[in-house]
Amino acid sequence: xxxxFFVLRVRVDVGDDIKALDARKISDIEKDRPVPEVVILGDxxxxxxxxDDGNAAGANRFxxxxxxxxxxxxxxxxxxx
Length: 81
Prior knowledge:
The two termini are 22 Å apart. It is globular, with a radius of gyration of 13 Å. It has helices at residues 2-13, 68-80, and strands spanning 38-41, 45-52, 55-63. It is of the alpha+beta class and 81 residues long. Strands 1-2-3 form a three-stranded antiparallel β-sheet, with helices on one face.
């Protein structure tokens, strides 16, 4: 986990907008399934990180061109937190 925060810090230093949410504050919206880990790359794409037994196993890609509704909805929801 520590190395992940190091990488996030470097990304912030180069201008990325990184946000980590307190799990206690979003527990009410995680009743059916956990809030996914997402990486949004500007207006180009969004990735939902997929885990297998606690290890990152890949990601589902959503292209802003074809999935604009999903990308916009998730971006808006994250900004509201």
